[in-house]
Design a protein that fits this description.
With 150 residues, the chain is mainly alpha-helical. The chain has one domain. It contains five helices and no strands. The longest helix has 51 residues. 10% of the residues are buried.
């Protein structure tokens, strides 16, 4: 072979299909990845970024909007409002900006859950105490002035 370009071309011919197969495997991994409710958003987005980087290294490239759309479609239902706001406001994020926004949203979810748990915990305890007091008061009245049926 006369030049390095000829050698490269000849090597791509038999091994090019492997690169395509590897790209298909990486794309399948990206498209089949779905976040569960319990998964921390940061780790999940980093996992998606690694899939996207692998595809890019293998020679294929997805534009930024498509990458964001793929990530947003893979989020659980708890992020539906975030997805809706993204579409309604026609925001354009980079992947790092998306990560930051999603982390803020996740923090709001956690605060909301803590507040709801505190409200449920305090209200259920107070109701239980009131019921016991009412029962004791009813029993006391029943024994003092109650009439037994025979």
């Amino acid at each position: 072979m006369a030049t390095a370009l000829d050698m490269l071309f000849n090597l791509k011919e038999p091994f090019g299909d492997r690169n395509r197969a590897a790209t298909q495997v990486a794309m399948k991994a990206l498209m089949n990845t779905q976040m569960t409710e319990e998964t921390p958003i940061r780790g999940y987005i980093l996992k998606m970024l690694s899939h996207l980087n692998e595809i890019e290294i293998l020679g294929d490239e997805l534009d930024g909007e498509t990458q964001i759309d793929i990530v947003l479609m893979s989020l659980p239902k708890s992020f539906e409002q975030f997805h809706l706001n993204y579409n309604m406001n026609k925001r354009l994020y980079s992947l790092t900006e998306l990560l930051t926004e999603l982390q803020e949203t996740e923090g709001l979810f956690k605060k909301r859950v803590q507040v709801n748990m505190a409200e449920k915990g305090s209200s259920s305890k107070s109701k239980g105490k009131k019921k016991k007091k009412k029962k004791k008061a009813a029993n006391a009245v029943g024994f003092q002035g109650g009439v037994k049926k025979t």
